[in-house]
Amino acid sequence: MSKVLVLYYSTYGHIETMAQAMAEGARSAGATVEVKRVPETVPLEIARSAHFKVEQAAPVATVAELESYDAIIVGAPTRFGRMPAQMAAFLDAAGGLWARGALNGKVGGAFTSTATQHGGQEVTLFSIITNLMHFGMTIVGLPYSYQGQMTLDEIVGGSPYGATTIAGGQGQRQPSAIELDGARFQGRLIAETANKLFGA
What we know:
It is a single chain. By secondary structure, this protein is α/β, with parallel strands linked by helices. Helices cover 35% and strands 16% of the residues. It has six helices and six strands; from the N terminus they run E-H-E-H-E-H-H-E-H-E-E-H. Strands 1, 2, 3, 4, 5 and 6 form a six-stranded parallel β-sheet that branches. Strand 1, helix 1 and strand 2 form a beta-alpha-beta unit.
């Protein structure tokens, strides 16, 4: 079966939670899945004073290991309608992989969180997807076959471009059942696609 990396950056834990759901979905398709995070670039003292979730179980990834996976699912919160500097810095360091075409043909996907319903979810997803397409990856989103994202019964994230959650202005809202199921759906679909492409 395929080997999948869920690669994330999470300031307050919302994306960390979504990453675990994404991994659950990929594992349900039989994939071998690892969940890793990118390095924090904010000095520890400042991060603690800003109440960042500095203790997270996932190990820190290295750029060099990216080519060992069949699929890479990238998750990060939004920062003014784009991915945060921590994720951008990590992906920017992958120029050597890009130059060698080391990620060409691999499967990619994106997920994000915003404070509000209209806080830049889709444009943030595209900021991640743009990087993955430059790496030559095949992108898998969250199609409308996941009907949960179409509900009008509650406030909910979700986009055909990737799973999302709404965190609230103070980070007070945790990912809902529908949002976590969306992450699981996308994770499974990405793993199934990688399984097909890589002969599993």
